[in-house]
Design a protein that fits this description.
Blueprint lengths: L6 E5 L3 H13 L3 E5 L2 H10 L4 E5 L7 H11 L5 E5 L4 H9 L4 E4 L4 H32 L8 E3 L2 E4 L4 E4 L2 E3 L3 H11 L5 E2 L1 H9 L7 H15 L9 E4 L3 E4 L16
Length: 260
């Protein structure tokens, strides 16, 4: 059993599945809290502090996609793991585009569920708690160092303070989007495969979940690029994966949006 508890909100109307998830969450040292419909789940999600929200797609009163969208409007940080029995790829992508951090398609193994929960929880806590520790260390040292913001062109990413700005304007990123952007900005010009990004940002190697990476890249581009179809910062390397532009490549043109 893992140590270090925390509350996990499970929004799932199938009581057998919810009960099974509760057992395994408790085995991981977590406290499961249930909501049996979407409207009740959204109220709980907005009214509490959660390590993770496990959210079913098909729910009475309010579907999981609507819950996800409403939650993300007010809370960009809490990790969301969506569960869906739908096999259509576009449904999974929609959930990710609206702010879910990860998804699993029913039926799934207990081992895979546990791995996803551990990975999301570990990465989220590292982003929030580790960032705070780095900020304290940087302030205590009284100098720039590991705590100094990363700057590439007009884009600045402050890891200790979990802030991103473009031309001085703050950008609102989820924990996972921020983590992906930090990986890229620390390694400008390096090409990352989808499998590498899945391992680095999500902490697992399950095959068939590359769309998780693709959708998060698209979400970052929509927030970052003047023209997401012609990205200036976050490039696609066809047949390989993605890379972040070298500083010299980010100099904007005089045209609208500064895209190249």
């Amino acid at each position: 059993m893992e140590t270090g508890g925390g509350k996990v909100l499970v929004i799932e109307d199938d009581r057998e599945i919810a009960g099974l998830l509760a057992v395994h969450l408790a085995d991981m040292g977590l406290e499961p809290v249930h909501a049996w419909d979407g409207a009740a789940g959204l109220r709980l999600a907005l009214g509490g502090s959660w390590e993770l929200v496990v959210l079913d797609w098909m729910l009475p009163t309010l579907d999981g996609i609507s819950v996800c969208a409403e939650l993300r409007k007010k809370d960009p940080v809490t990790p969301i793991l969506m569960l869906t029995a739908k096999s259509d790829e576009i449904d999974r992508v929609l959930g990710l585009e609206l702010g879910a951090d990860d998804y699993m398609t029913k039926p799934f193994s207990v081992r895979e569920f546990a791995a996803r929960v551990k990975a999301l929880r570990r990465r989220s806590r590292a982003s929030r708690e580790g960032a705070g520790a780095e900020a304290d260390e940087a302030r205590g040292a009284g100098r720039e160092g590991e705590g100094a913001p990363l700057r590439i062109g007009e884009l600045e990413l402050d890891v200790p303070r979990h802030r991103v700005s473009l031309r001085g304007v703050p950008l609102e990123l989820t924990v996972k989007e921020f983590e992906l952007l930090a990986i890229f900005m620390k390694n400008p010009g390096r090409v990352f495969t989808r499998a590498e990004l899945l391992r680095l940002a999500w902490g697992y190697d399950f095959e068939g979940y590359e769309h998780t990476v693709n959708t998060h890249i698209n979400r970052i581009r929509n927030k970052l690029e003047g023209d997401p179809s012609r990205p200036r910062f976050l490039k696609t390397v066809w047949g390989l994966g993605y890379s972040f532009a070298e500083p010299a490549e980010t100099i904007p043109d005089a045209g609208a949006g500064g895209t190249r």
